[in-house]
TrEMBL record:
GTP binds at residues 226-231, 245-251, 270-273, 331-334, 353-355. GO terms for cellular component: cytosol. The gene is mnmE. One of its GO terms (biological process) is tRNA methylation. The lineage of its organism: Bacteria, Pseudomonadati, Bacteroidota, Sphingobacteriia, Sphingobacteriales. The keyword tRNA processing applies. This is tRNA modification GTPase MnmE. It is an enzyme of class 3 (hydrolase). It comes from Pedobacter insulae. Mg(2+) binds at S230, T251. Its EC number is 3.6.-.-. GO terms for molecular function: GTP binding; GTPase activity; identical protein binding; metal ion binding. Exhibits a very high intrinsic GTPase hydrolysis rate. Involved in the addition of a carboxymethylaminomethyl (cmnm) group at the wobble position (U34) of certain tRNAs, forming tRNA-cmnm(5)s(2)U34.
Length: 450
C-alpha cells in the first residue's frame, strides 16, 4: 500500500469534535506539513499533541493529533487521528488541505481492509468490526465482540489445522503412489472428518439463532381492522407512533418498529397490507400479504375479546395453515366479565387490554418465551453472517465426499482434492483464501472512515 488515505471517522454533521483519520506511509509526514506544533516525526507512538492546523498562514483549527506509528496501529500502517472541532466547514477544510498535499479519500471500509491485508486480524474478525458498529442490542453486541476478538476464527483455525495435517499426509501418499503406502491413517481420518462434520453442523445451525439475535425477531401483528393492533404497538413501544383511529382500516402508514426486550430485539415488520385485508386468508389477492407474513418468526394474532369463540376459531383455521408460530391475543379484555373470559378456556389465548395497558408486561415475557432465546449463551459461537454459513455448507459437502471416498476405496487423488476443497472453503471464512471480488463485497458494505 503506497498511498495514504484519509476519511472522517466520526459521523458527518456537526458535533463537539470530529475525528479525521489518516493512514499510510506518509500519514505522519502529511500531518506534519499542516501542523503547527511539535514535529510529529520525532514523537513516540501512541501520544497526543496539541497544536494548530494551518493552510499557509491561515489558521483552520486548534486540534489534537493522535499518533500511531506503524506497525502498532489499527491498520498496522502509520496512522494519525486528528481531533478537530466538529464543524462541517473545518472538517472539509482539513480534509481538502491534506488531499491537496497528497492524501487520497478513503473508500468505504478501506481502513479495515488494510488492517486485514496487513494481518491485524482475519476476515471474519474484520466483518465483526462492521457488526459491532451496527449492533444495537446486548445480544448483537456480545456476538460481534466475541467474533471480533477471534472466538470463531480460533475455532475454525483449529479445524483447519487438523485437516491440513491429513492433507499433507495424503499428498505424501501421492508422491509414493507406486508403492501403495498409506501415511494417512484412514480410521483417524474418518474420525476427524466426522468430528469436523458435527462441529460444522452445530455452527451452521447456530445461524438461525445468531441471525435472529443480530437482526431482531421479525414479528407480525395481524388481525382484523379495529381489534386494537395499533393501540398495542403503541403500548409496546410506549409512544404514539401509529395512528389509532376508530374507523376500520384507516391505519395505512407503514409501521416498522423495534422493541428491545431484555436485550432481544423484536422487529415489527410492516403489516399495512395485512391490516387492510379483512381476513388474512379469505381475502383475495393476499399473496403479497402472505409473503410478508412468511418473513415473520412469530405472528401475534389479535382478535376482539368481545366476539364469540366460534368466530375466533374460524379465523384460526387460516392462521394455522401458515405454519408459523403464533400467539393469540384477545384484546379489549376490559370489556369482559370473568364468565365471558371462561368461554375461551378451550383455547390458549392471552387477554390484554391494549388501551388500558393491561397485560403488556406479561405479553413481553410471553414474547421472550415464544422465541425461546433464554438459554442462548452469547459467549458461544453463533453465526450471524450468511457468507460464513454458505462457506461452511460447502465445507460440509466437501467433507461428505471425503467420507465417502475413505469408505469406497478409490485413489488418493480424489481424497486429496476433496480435502483441499474443504480447506479452501474454511479458508474463505477467515480470509486465508480470498479473491478481489470477495473482499470488495465485504468491505464496500462498511461505512467510510472505518
Ligand atoms: P387496529 O385497526 O387493529 O389498529 O385498531 P386500533 O388500535 O386503531 O383500535 C381500534 C379501536 O379500538 C380504537 O378506538 C381503540 O381505542 C380501541 N381499543 C384498542 N384497544 C382497546 C382496549 O384494550 N379496550 C377497549 N375498550 N378499546 C380498545
Amino acid at each position: 500500500m503506497t498511498d495514504t488515505i484519509i476519511a472522517l471517522s466520526t459521523p458527518p454533521g456537526s458535533g463537539a469534535i470530529g475525528v479525521i483519520r489518516l493512514s499510510g506511509p506518509d500519514a505522519i509526514t502529511l500531518a506534519n506539513e499542516v501542523f503547527a506544533g511539535k514535529n510529529l516525526a520525532e514523537q513516540a507512538s501512541h501520544t497526543l499533541h496539541f497544536g494548530l492546523i494551518k493552510n499557509g498562514e491561515v489558521i483552520i483549527d486548534e486540534v489534537v493529533m493522535g499518533l500511531f506509528v506503524a506497525p502498532t496501529s489499527y491498520t498496522k500502517e502509520n496512522v494519525v487521528e486528528i481531533s478537530c472541532h466538529g464543524s462541517n466547514y473545518i472538517i472539509q477544510q482539513i480534509m481538502n488541505l491534506l488531499i491537496s498535499k497528497g492524501a487520497r479519500a478513503a473508500k468505504p471500509g478501506e481502513f479495515t481492509l488494510r488492517a486485514f491485508l496487513n494481518g491485524a486480524f482475519d476476515l471474519s474478525q474484520a466483518e465483526a468490526v462492521a457488526d459491532l458498529i451496527a449492533s444495537d442490542s446486548k445480544a448483537s453486541h456480545d456476538i460481534a465482540l466475541q467474533q471480533m476478538r477471534g472466538g470463531f476464527s480460533n475455532e475454525l483455525k483449529d479445524l483447519r489445522e487438523q485437516l491440513i495435517h491429513f492433507a499433507s499426509m495424503i499428498e505424501l501418499e501421492l508422491d509414493f503412489a507406486e508403492e501403495d503406502v498409506e501415511f494417512a491413517n484412514r480410521d483417524q481420518l474418518r474420525n476427524l472428518v466426522s468430528r469436523l462434520t458435527s462441529h460444522i453442523a452445530i455452527l451452521i445451525s447456530s445461524f438461525e439463532v445468531g441471525n435472529v439475535l443480530k437482526n431482531g425477531v421479525p414479528v407480525v401483528i395481524a388481525g382484523k381492522p379495529n381489534v386494537g393492533k395499533s393501540t398495542l404497538l403503541n403500548a409496546l413501544l410506549n409512544e404514539e407512533r401509529a395512528i389509532v383511529s376508530d374507523i376500520a382500516g384507516t391505519t395505512r402508514d407503514t409501521i416498522e418498529d423495534e422493541l428491545n426486550i431484555n436485550g432481544v430485539i423484536f422487529r415489527f415488520i410492516d403489516t399495512a397490507g395485512i391490516r387492510d385485508t379483512a381476513d388474512i386468508i379469505e381475502a383475495k389477492g393476499v399473496e403479497r400479504t402472505l409473503e410478508k407474513m412468511k418473513q415473520a418468526k412469530l405472528i401475534i394474532y389479535m382478535a376482539d375479546a368481545t366476539q364469540s369463540l366460534n368466530e375466533l376459531e374460524e379465523q384460526l383455521i387460516g392462521l394455522q395453515k401458515l405454519d408459523i408460530p403464533y400467539l393469540i391475543l384477545l384484546n379489549k379484555a376490559d370489556l369482559l366479565t370473568a364468565a365471558q373470559r371462561e368461554a375461551f378456556a378451550a383455547l390458549e389465548v392471552h387477554f390484554i387490554s391494549a388501551r388500558e395497558k393491561q397485560g403488556i408486561e406479561e405479553l413481553k415475557d410471553i414474547l421472550l418465551d415464544k422465541v425461546n432465546l433464554h438459554h442462548i449463551n452469547t459467549s458461544e459461537t453463533l453465526l450471524t453472517n450468511i457468507r460464513h454459513v454458505e462457506a461452511l455448507k460447502q465445507t460440509e459437502s466437501a467433507l461428505e465426499r471425503v467420507m465417502s471416498n475413505i469408505d469406497n476405496p478409490v485413489t488418493s487423488d480424489f481424497l486429496a482434492m476433496d480435502i483441499k476443497q474443504a480447506l479452501h472453503y474454511l479458508g474463505e471464512i477467515t480470509g486465508q483464501v480470498t479473491t478481489d471480488d470477495l473482499l470488495e463485497n465485504i468491505f464496500t458494505k462498511f461505512c467510510i472512515g472505518k
